[in-house]
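Now for a specimen:

…
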Amino acid sequence: TALLTVVRRDSFAASEKEIFQALCRWCQQHEDGADTQEVMSAVRLPLMTLTEMLNVVRPSGLVSPDDLLDAIKTRSESRNMDLNYRGMLIPEENIATMKHGAQVVKGELKSSLLDGDTQNYDLDHGFSRHPIEEDGRSGLQVKLGQPSIINHIRLLLWDRDSRSYSYYIEVSMDELDWVRVIDHSKYLCRSWQNLYFTPRIC
């Protein structure tokens, strides 16, 4: 029961392959096999790559061929952000920092976006920016240090003049499939933005 409580959590800082291999070792130590099926059901097989499913899971003999095929079907037919990912959960802490391995991968003046300095900025320094284009494809992009569970973003929009901005925020696990969690594209916003949304792993 304690084992299942741990491995069924969304907040788990390990790859699904590592979780599977750890549970395999547990099952080998409990060879009566009564709990094997229940323990193995806690593994989120669709989060593993096809190669891992074929070369790691299949040879173990601990997962039925039907369950393996169902996982492959789910993996191939689901959109990426609908998969039941796991991530790191660090409550009440800013994880968009260099300390946690975050980096700005898109935008101008990248070093200013995550430095935490919200006092010293003007038109020339201390602020990240991007061109405002009609197609909406330009923007700022932050890559977190590891898959993480987030439900709150706090950001400071330029507020040293009377301009206002419209924006939206999307999250992803693979930088291909994006889910919009905040849509202020129809609002005029400025200064501090405190944004809450349903917890997402990204």
Summary: The two ends are 29 Å apart (CA to CA).
